[in-house]
Each structure stands twice: as structure tokens, then as C-alpha cells.
Amino acid sequence: MLDGGVIYHCGPVVKKHDDGSWSFVAAGPTTSIREEVYQPEVIEHFNLRGVIGKGGMGPNTLKACQEHGAVYFHAIGGAASLIAQSVKEVPAVYKLEFGVPEAMWVIRVEDFPVVVTMDSHGESIHQQIEAKSKEKLTELIGI
User: Fold this and answer.
1) Rounded CA separation 107/140 (Å)
2) Where are the domains of the chain?
3) The whole model's pTM is what?
4) pLDDT at 143
5) Residue 2: pLDDT band by 50, 70, 90 thresholds?
């Protein structure tokens, strides 16, 4: 199911309908960096093409993106209701016994509002912004 797919770091708010189907009410991203220690192995094992989250990831994930042809997509925090509108179907849910936020939701999306911030060529907008910010800070405080 995950082969060639995308993982979204998200703790959704969902609604279960009388017919047993589900819909997403809110689908805001969660901070991805806490997955940094596992993400390279997850990308490799599941042959992922992408990871969606908030805040970017570190050098291990960036290297895994290069090695396996994947990208990191940044989703905007605070836009959970807007993002949920892109979730068109919930074909399956696994591990619901862990609770709604921790379950594994299989979703079909359209026009999902994300931007690639780490690519398979080793580019990271997160690293670029951090470097420019440090440069500006140094300039401002005179170190």
C-alpha cells in the first residue's frame, strides 16, 4: 500500500459516518523533525516518493531523499480545515486501536496545498533559510 507513495505527518480530526465511511474535518501537519531518526529507513523500506509535514527534516532525511528519489513537502501549519478539503476519500484506516491521531489513514487527495522544500538533488530550502538567517543575525548583532 505504501510502495511508491507518500506519508503525511498528520494527526487528523475525522468524522465517522453512519455508513462506516470516514471524512477528514481537519488535517493539519505535525512537526516532522521528531521522525528524523527513523525517516531514512522508512523511505527506503516503503520505497516512498515523498514525506509531507511541517518544519522540514534534517540531513539524514535529505540524504535518503537523494538516494531513493524522494522529496519532502512542507504543509502550512494552522491550515488544517483548508487542507482537509483536499482529502477526497478515505479508502482504509489501519491501527485504529491506537486512537484516531495515531492510526494510519489511507487517503486520496486532490490539489493538496504543499510545496517541495527538500528535493532528490540535495537542495533544502530549510537549510538555505537557516544559513541566511544566521548571516543576517551576525550582521545585526555585529559578531
Assistant:
1) 46
2) 6-141
3) 0.89
4) 66
5) confident
